[in-house]
Amino acid sequence: xxxxxxxxxxxxxxxxxxxxxxxxxxxxxxxxxxxxxxxxxxxxxxxxxxxxxxxxxxxxxxxxxxxxxxxxxxxxxxxxxxxxxxxxxxxxxxxxxxxxxxxxxxxxxxxxxxxxxxxxxxxxxxxxxxxxxxxxxxxxxxxxxxxxxxxxxxxxxxxxxxxxxxxxxxxxxxxxxxxxxxxxxxxxxxxxxxxxxxxxxxxxxxxxxxxxxxxxxxxxxxxxxxxxxxxxxxxxxxxxxxxxxxxxxxxxxxxxxxxxxxxxxxxxxxxxxxxxxxxxxxxxxxxxxxxxxxxxxxxxxxxxxxxxxxxxxxxxxxxxxxxxxxxxxxxxxxxxxxxxxxxxxxxxxxxxxxxxxxxxxxxxxxxxxxxxxxxxxxxxxxxxxxxxxxxxxxxxxxxxxxxxxxxxxxxxxxxxxxxxxxxxxxxxxxxxxxxxxxxxxxxxxxxxxxxxxxxxxxxxxxxxxxxxxxxxxxxxxxxxxxxxxxxxxxxxxxxxxxxxxxxxx
Length: 505
Hints:
By secondary structure, the chain is α+β, with helices and mostly antiparallel strands. The chain has nine helices and 27 strands. The strands form four sheets. Strands 1, 2, 3, 4, 5, 6, 7, 8, 9, 11, 24 and 26 form a twelve-stranded mixed beta sheet that branches. Strands 10, 12, 23, 25 and 27 form a five-stranded antiparallel beta sheet that branches. β18 and β19 (339-347) form a beta hairpin.
């Protein structure tokens, strides 16, 4: 299969930044296993849609989160908490790396597993799958900032990734990145370069799935947002914040396997094309389900990988399945006089990090001054943060592409040749703790312009699995052949996990 087709298969279908890293530097932890959390708790998101930031790290005492907010004592029952946000720090040589990430209530504390330096998580804790973690030097410390080429779980799925580096700052005329392997997988990086974008200070910049850069002059949040039960989701979806709509998968035969979310936006007159700006991510549990679905293949997994790598019909089947099931790419439907019409696909993002992503939508058939947009995410696979619509035309920007000035691994090996272009040369990190340090020469500032920096990278990774077992033929058929099968498997596995937690196994 040609590389560009593979890129489309991955970016528009399996393209999920499928496991993530934690962007703003705070970790989100599941309440169900809050006792396993050892990192400082710096904030919470409550079930009724409020973010609470603590003056100093809070503690969990007798099933309650206890701390101080604005110098006043504060406590709340864990049952009323949707997310815990914790701070994670690690030392790389003389420099500190920090991350503040979050995990949904009810999902296991994989933050502890991800930062454990190689310790195997407890069997009852679901494990997220990911890709390299990229930390930006902000002038004081390394801050977790990107997680490239998610979901590229075999070489045939290698793909390009475009991530804004929000924390990167030039120091002494240099940009510095640290790339680490923090999970049980072998990571193969083919390319790393920076795109330095100078633009009007009156616009922001976001990328689409294929690396197109778009200016956003007037992004407008939804006027209304609700699900099929009439629940008001506007507080959750109107802003990029720590209110993330991420309901856990339900168990049981009568459980609803999909949400049905409709958002209403203002539509300026005479507009036929708009930019949907979405900040959404694959959930922790959705990320874990990659592992569950790979393990269904048992001893046949190696041949499945080979078929994907050789560009057989397996890749096309993977694309069609993911578009149908919407596990890691959401169909964006626009309401027209004839009904709902799919006008775009939204790629996912990792469970710890989400990027703003632009999806271009044709709204030429939408009458009136409002446009309604629908998404139908499978329950448990998605974490939705914010949506906006921008109807302004793209403006000119100045893009400078930077190759690495210096790139070395922990042993001092020069990595520039491996990372300079998309070819057969890769920088391989097979072990948790493997690290690379990259330096780029920062261009001089452009007068009266604002600067946004993106990491353009390409690569793939291979998850480390236990010894293969017999393929689960029935499970494969139910998951990949039956509509809704993957969501049903997810709900069943989640129910099993909850039962094991309750029984103490």
